Every structure is written in structure tokens, then in C-alpha cells.
Amino acid sequence: MRSPLHRRMTVGLGLVAIAGLALAGCAEGGSSSNSSGSVSGQTVNISGGITGTEADALNKSFEKFTADTGIKVVYTGDKGFEGNIVTKVSGGDAPDVAIVPQPGLLKTLVGTGSVKAAADAVSKNVDQYWGADWKGYGTFDGTFYAAPMLANLKGYVWYSPAKFKEWGVQVPKTWDEMLALTQTIQQKTGAAPWCAGFASQAASGWPGTDWIEDLVLRQSGPDVYDQWVANKVKFTDPQIKQAFDAVGQILLNPAYVNAAFGDVKSINSVAFADVAAKVADGTCPMTHQASFLSANFLTVTNAAGQTPKIAPDGDVYAFILPGVKSGELAVEGGGEFVAAFSDSAAVQQVVEFMSTPEFANARVKLGGVVSANKGADPSLASSAFLTEAMKVLQDPKTTLRFDASDLMPATVGSGSFWKGMVSWIDGKPTDQVLSDIQAGYQN
Predict the structure, then answer these.
(1) Residue 399 phi/psi, 5° resolution?
(2) In this prediction, what percent of the chain has a pLDDT beyond 70?
(3) Which pLDDT score is estimated for 26?
(4) Which residues have a Cβ under 8 Å from the Cβ of 92 and sit 6 or more positions away?
């Protein structure tokens, strides 16, 4: 459904994917100092949480940069990046650059003293193409460290337009209509209307936090959301439990999940990206995931070897999870920040390039992603859906709300909150889960 993307909305842009740039030093036998000598021939190795086809696309994004500068950039994905990066940095094995998914994790890394302050050229690019909100999330104690890279909108429900037409159902406009739609599909098909996957190695559980954050925004509003992020509203507060209860109406209901995969507990063993194929072939009527799931559809093919068409009349499309009242729209989102651990000339050139519209355009046109860089061209996005999502991200009228778990301290946001979602799906009582998550602030 296109129309919600043209409305003014509250968007929370969290920091979801990670990619670290680690300098292999230079080409073998060379030097990685920041002298004024030529950087041509040097190699910058990138490691981070981006894997699979997205990692391949990230590597390809640097082809023209390499041709222009002679600097070779090599990216290698690490599925356990979030859990490994702090240990590596603390142990003196820091990469040259990390593309960090959560401001809370970024703050922890900055706290080690190993992250380099961003160069003036990077700072100017962010001022020109991103704005104060984005820059603020990469700034600590008055020092700007990390520029944003890509971005995504969360809170989408992916579905099959053909199946909706077959069942005679419409895209819902309120949360209650969403529940009614769920019940209707279950009755018409006799099968679960939703599928979900929380498995993501060391980051398992994060897709569940997105569900909770969406419902906190929709039920309690952005002010409560902000207070929750700041730990002024606790996880044990009734307003947060209300969000868990709402999500539980779907995710804890064995009649409603886990389409094509199993029972409720199977959610924890299904990789979040694996749901794309099941939505595309119609065995999963609906799944809740961010705009970046469109990249996973690019890896899916039917019997004819074709990838799904993402369009209102195509194989798959998405609508924004509706609010409590019709017309109310509050959406969170995600993105990445690029933090350097080396001030070598080669690394600094790579970091500067990644803050430009040229990098954003190079990556966006390869498909599956969007950028909030205001100098980037939305028409390069790989689908009309992503073009619209990108315009929302670039719109100066859009109110930004970062992903709450990404803004919380790492011990909570990427710690007890993630783990709590896994325990909740496994059957632990909600009150105990909320208490356990809140205890993360004491670690």
C-alpha cells in the first residue's frame, strides 16, 4: 500500500546492520601510516555483520572508488560481529573501521578510547547530506565520531497481494483491523497467518524487539517511547507490558504462528531472513520485518528462475503496521554508522567516501537497500517500494525515532532485551521476562 508512505510519520531510525572496516594494513609489505605518500595499492579490509548477497553488494559498491584511488577494499561478513567487536577492540585487535548497528554499542566502542574522531571532510558531508539528528547519534561528549551509512524503515508487514485478493481481504487501517485480518486468514485457510524468525546467531531475538518497539510507539506514543529509551519508563511499567501483551496476541498464539515452519517455539530456530522465501511462495501469508527484507527477496527464485516482483500487484508487497486509530502512523527504523579505528590515509579516504552520495548511489542501485543521504537518488532504488521508503527517509518533515533497543545501553538493547525476547517465545512468563530485561541496566 503506497499511501502511508506519503503521510507525515514518526520514524525511529535505529542502527541495524554492522560492517567493520579493518585495515589489512596495506598491500603486503607496505605501510599503513598516515603519511602523505600514495595510498594506491593499499588494502582496507572490511569486516562486520553484513553477510550473504548484501555483503557481495557492499564489496561491489567500492569498485569505482578502487578504480579512482587505487585503494582495494575487501569486505568479509561476521555473523557474530555484535558479540565479537567489543572483545576484539578491548583486546587490542580493533579493525580499522566498524560500521556499527546500535548507538549503544557505538558508545561502548567510543568508551574504549580506540575510535578516532571523524575527519572534517566527513563531518561536512554529514552536515550537508544527513543533518543534525543523524550526526547527533554519532556524537559523544561533544565529539563527532561516526557517519551514517545506509538506513531502513521498520514496522512493515510483508504479504502476498495475490493471496489477499484470493481471500477477499484488505490491508488493515488499525491494529484491531490487523487482528481481525489475522483471524479471517486463519479461518479461511485453516493455517497460521504469520511467520517469524528470531534466529540471528549472537544477535538472536532482535526481530522481536522490533515488534515490541512498534507497539510501544503505537499504543503509548513517542513521548513514552523516548522516556523508555532513557530508562525513565522501565520495562516493568504497565505501558511496556501492554505492548508485550499486544504482540503476544500474534506471536504466542499457536493458531497464528509459525506458518510453514512449525509451532511458536520454532520462531527462535528460524533465521529472520528465511521467511522471505515462504512469503514469496504464499505459504507464509504475513511477516513483520523492515524494508531491508526486500534484499532477501532478491535471493529467492520460483520454478521459472524469476525473483519475486515487489509491487502492489506483484508477488510480494508491504504495508506499515497500523496504529491504534486509523490515520495514526508511528514507525521506527534502522541504519548503520561508520567508525574508524585507524587514521591512516587509506582508511580515512574510505570512510570519507562512505559518507557521500556517490557511495549511497553505488550501493542503492545494486538493490535491496535505501539510504537517508539527502544527496542520493531515490530513483536508483531497486523497486518502487524502496524508492518510496527512501523518499520518506530523506523528507525533512519526517520526525526521526531511532530503534529503541539500538539506543539503549548495549547490556540492555543488544543484551537482556534480545535474550528476553528469546526467553519469552520459549514460554517464560511476561512479568519475569520484563524484570530480567530491566536487570540489564545493572550489568
Answers:
(1) -90, 125
(2) 91
(3) 33
(4) none
**Strand bridging mode 330-340 / 97-100:** antiparallel
The three cell numbers of residue 101 are 548497528
Same domain, 102 and 191: no
339 - beta bridge partners? 98
Q: Are residues 89 and 148 in the same domain?
A: yes
Peptide bond into 125 cis (omega under 30): no
Q: Could you tell me the pTM of the whole model?
A: 0.76
The pLDDT of residue 225 is: 93
Query: For residue range 189-240, what is the model confidence (pLDDT) as tens digits?
Result: 999 999 999 999 989 999 999 999 999 999 999 899 999 999 999 999 999 9
Write out the residue range of the structural domain in which residue 67 sits: 3-153+334-400
Question: Going by DSSP bridges, is the β-strand pair 10-13/330-340 parallel, antiparallel, or unpaired?
Answer: parallel
Residue 118: is its pLDDT beyond 90? yes
Taking the C-alpha atoms of residue 435 and residue 443, their distance in angstroms, rounded to an integer, is 13
Question: What is the total count of domains within the chain?
Answer: 2
User: Helix (H) and strand (E) counts for the chain?
Assistant: 20, 13
Smallest CA-to-CA distance from 82 within 64, 99, 59, 68 is with 99
| Contact between 337 and 16 (Cβ < 8 Å) | no
